[in-house]
Amino acid sequence: MDRETRVFAESHFRGLEGRLPSRVCPKLDRVDFIEKPDSFSYADFFKGYLLPNLPCVFSSAFTEDWGSRRLWVTPSGKPNFDYLLQNYGDVVVPVANCGVQEYNSNPKEHMPLRDYISYWKEYIQANYSSSRVCLYLKDWHLCRDFLAEGVFTLPIYFSSDWLNEYWDALDVDDYRFVYMGPTGTWSPFHADVFRSFSWSVNICGRKKWFFFPPGQEEALRDCHGGLPYDVTSPTLLDSRLYPMRDRCGPPLEVTQEAGEMVFVPSGWHHQVHNLEDTISINHNWVNGCNLANMWHFLQQELSAVQQEVIEWRDTMPDWHHHCQVIMKSCSGINFEEFYHFLKIIAERRLLLLAKGMSPGQVEGGEDTGLGPQQAAFDIGRIAEVLESVVAHPDFQRVDPSTFSPRPEVLLRQLEEAVAATTSL
């Protein structure tokens, strides 16, 4: 990030005046297609898509050097089952049954990749018969379980990735996934975890995306307040079931070809269908641009938990603590861990500014090239959100002995750093 981009970004957030970035976006009638890597900079993406929270599609030229596009794909453009079996055949992978609805998702089982590929081959031989079970390999943590060197190269546009930086620092998890499945597999209507950004690259195959800007999903709620499972279902035309459907505009539709990369903005609900046998690599990520969205989402999640157990508020000892435990179980994170997330990213940014390093160099890793201006921007965004966290009544009820440094101390350090980097 250069200084001009940082100044632009800070001015953008001042202009929001406390409104959520995801809720402020222009109406679109199409999704932009970015064709040439050599004429599209990090600043172009940051200012044109990341800050305004708008989707875009990158051409296959951005991923042409990826090893997975060469090794995982046959010359005819189909999944290279032989290579996948030879290198990953014994790996146990999560597989969803697209034919069964479980709440607004699909039930999962685990099986060796070789068994899934055997199923896939049989499914192809049966001409993708609708009478057969439709299985989709989803959320395989390839990078967590294997050295993924050569499989892909993280595009610089997505380098400011706090979510995976945090989990990598803890060395316990990540939000990097491989998806693969036959023609007809799909992901139901949803918004991404923690209201994160995501990116998705088709290693082979084609996908059809249906995008709804933030807020549009409210018009898709049924008469009981629930969101739809499938936005292509004819049942959405029933005004008795979906009384507000007419208030929702048509989705933005994108057909993603092999090698192309889709950027999914924060809080955009979407549904995705595989039009061919498809393999994709996907990341969820959070940074300073959507941190406020994540914090807002976590507050909503806690409120939902509290409403579910409100009848025990006056009789259950440590009711507020139990709500945080339930929230962690349901959402994967609670207020305590959110603070630790902010702390780790903040301390790394403070360290690299003190040493004059770029974010990618904090622990000797490859330089992302984002530089000290990015670090200064990050610190400003963390400070703003942490101020809101510290003031939240439910955060104030969390056991303070779990925090080091105390949130107020970290906030003061960040505010001092913001002041010191004004002229950077």
UniProtKB/TrEMBL annotation:
GO molecular function: 2-oxoglutarate-dependent dioxygenase activity; catalytic activity, acting on a protein; metal ion binding; sequence-specific DNA binding
Swiss-Prot/TrEMBL GO biological process terms: positive regulation of translational termination
Domain annotation JmjC: ranges: 143-302
Classification via InterPro entries: Cupin_8, JmjC_dom, JMJD6_ArgDemeth/LysHydrox
Keyword Isomerase among record annotations: no
PANTHER family given in the database record: 2-OXOGLUTARATE AND IRON-DEPENDENT OXYGENASE JMJD4 (PTHR12480:SF6), ARGININE DEMETHYLASE AND LYSYL-HYDROXYLASE JMJD (PTHR12480)
Record-given protein name: 2-oxoglutarate and iron-dependent oxygenase JMJD4
Organism: Bos mutus (wild yak)
